[in-house]
Amino acid sequence: LRMVSAAPLDDDSVSDEELRPNTLEGFIGQPRLKAQLELFLEAARKRDVPPDHILLAGPPGLGKTTLAMIVSHELGVPIRVTSGPAIQHAGDLASILSSLESGEVLFLDEIHRLPRAAEELLYIAMEDFRVDVMVGKGPGASSIPLTLPRFTVIGATTREGMLPSPLRARFGFTAHLDFYPASELEKLVERSATVLDLHITQTACSELAKRSRGTPRIANRLLRRVRDWAIVHDLSKVDYEDVKSALSLYQIDSEGLDRLDLAVLRTIVTSFDGGPVGLSNLSAMVGEEAETVQTVCEPYLVREGFLVRTPKGRIATKKAWTHLGLSAPEDVMK
Ligand code: ADP
C-alpha cells in the first residue's frame, strides 16, 4: 500500500467526493485550461446546444473526474459515470447510450480500455447521435437504428497514445492536465483543510504541498493523514513540525519520496556505484515487481531529476547522491 500512489486507494473514494470542487472557479490551478474550458462552455450555453465532446488526458489524480463533474454542474445537466473496463460488451454501451437524456454528460473514464466493438459503436454515436440496438437473439435477431438526443461525451485517459486516432478525432476539445506546481498545491491544501475544518498554518500547507508529487489526490490524502495526527494529539492547529512528524511516520520524506523510491536510489548508488543498472536487476534488488518500479517510482524520480534512464540502464544523478547524504563521485551526471 503506497501513500504516494497517484491512483486511488481504498479510503480515497469518500474524500475524493467531499473534497471535490463543483465549479470551475473552485478548481485550483491549471489557469490556461480553465480559461479555455470557460470559453468553450460559455459558447455552448449561448448557442443553447450541448458542447462538443471533451477529452481529458493526463496522469491519475490530477482532476479529470473532477472536471467532468464541474462541466455537468456548470451546464446544469445530469452526468452518467462509467469507464472503459466496466463496459464489457458493445451492448452495455448501447443500453447506456439509448437511455441518455438530452444534453446529458456521459463520463467515460479510462476510455482507452473500451473493448473494440464498443469503441466502434461510440464513434457513430458521437458523430451521428445514432445507435444500433440489437433486438432478440439467434437467427431471429435484428438491429434497430435508434436516434439519440444530443449529448456530450467526456472521455478521460491516462494513456492518450493508446487511443485510436479515429476516436481521438471525434473530440472537439482536448485538454492535457499536467502536474501542479507546489504553489498551486499549497492553495489546494488550504482549501481542503477548510472543507475538513482543520486549522493549519501556512508553512504546514506549503510543506504538505512540497511532498505531494505535483498531484492533488496525494495532497488530499497526506492532509487526511495529518488530520488523523491532529485528532490523536488533540491539536487545535497543525504546524510545520506536526506535518514533518506525521509524514515521517509514513516514511514520506522532504521531497515526497517514500521508502520504495529511496530503496531504488540507494540500491543504484550503493550496490551499482551509481549505475547504469538494468530494470530487472534493480527491481530484484529492491524486492519489487519491475512493473511497479517502472510505473510508480521512476516517472517521479526522473521528473525530479534523481534518476536518468539511458539505453544501458538507470543512472543516479548527483541530486540523488546528495539527497541520500552521500558525496557523489566527480564524473557523476548532474
Ligand atoms: P483523476 O480523475 O484525474 O484521477 P480526480 O478528479 O478524481 O482525479 O481528483 C482526485 C482528487 O483531487 C479529488 O478529491 C479532487 O477533488 C482533487 N482535485 C483534483 N484536481 C483538483 C483541483 N484542480 N482543485 C481542487 N481539487 C482537485
From TrEMBL:
Q: Which residues bind Mg(2+)?
A: 65
Quaternary structure annotation from Swiss-Prot or TrEMBL: Homohexamer. Forms an RuvA(8)-RuvB(12)-Holliday junction (HJ) complex. HJ DNA is sandwiched between 2 RuvA tetramers; dsDNA enters through RuvA and exits via RuvB. An RuvB hexamer assembles on each DNA strand where it exits the tetramer. Each RuvB hexamer is contacted by two RuvA subunits (via domain III) on 2 adjacent RuvB subunits; this complex drives branch migration. In the full resolvosome a probable DNA-RuvA(4)-RuvB(12)-RuvC(2) complex forms which resolves the HJ.
Query: What lineage is on file?
Result: Bacteria, Bacillati, Actinomycetota, Actinomycetes, Bifidobacteriales
Q: Which SMART domains does the record associate with it?
A: AAA (SM00382)
Which EC number(s) are documented for this chain? Answer: 3.6.4.-
Question: Per UniProt, where does DNA bind?
Answer: 309, 314
List the InterPro entries.
Answer: AAA+_ATPase, AAA_lid_4, DNA_helicase_Holl-junc_RuvB, P-loop_NTPase, RuvB-like_N, RuvB_wg_C, WH-like_DNA-bd_sf, WH_DNA-bd_sf
Top-level enzyme category: hydrolase
Keywords per UniProt = ATP-binding, Cytoplasm, DNA damage, DNA recombination, DNA repair, DNA-binding, Helicase, Hydrolase, Nucleotide-binding
Name of the protein described by the UniProt record:
Holliday junction branch migration complex subunit RuvB
Classification via Gene3D superfamilies: 1.10.8.60, P-loop containing nucleotide triphosphate hydrolases, Winged helix-like DNA-binding domain superfamily/Winged helix DNA-binding domain
**Function summary:** The RuvA-RuvB-RuvC complex processes Holliday junction (HJ) DNA during genetic recombination and DNA repair, while the RuvA-RuvB complex plays an important role in the rescue of blocked DNA replication forks via replication fork reversal (RFR). RuvA specifically binds to HJ cruciform DNA, conferring on it an open structure. The RuvB hexamer acts as an ATP-dependent pump, pulling dsDNA into and through the RuvAB complex. RuvB forms 2 homohexamers on either side of HJ DNA bound by 1 or 2 RuvA tetramers; 4 subunits per hexamer contact DNA at a time.
Where does it mainly reside?
A: cytoplasm
A Gene Ontology molecular function term for this protein is: ATP hydrolysis activity
Which chemical reaction does it catalyze? ATP + H2O = ADP + phosphate + H(+)
Give Gene Ontology CC terms.
Answer: cytoplasm; Holliday junction resolvase complex
Domain AAA+ ATPase, residue spans: 50-183
Q: Where does the record place the region Small ATPAse domain (RuvB-S)?
A: 181-251
Cellular localisation = Cytoplasm
| Species of provenance | Bombiscardovia coagulans
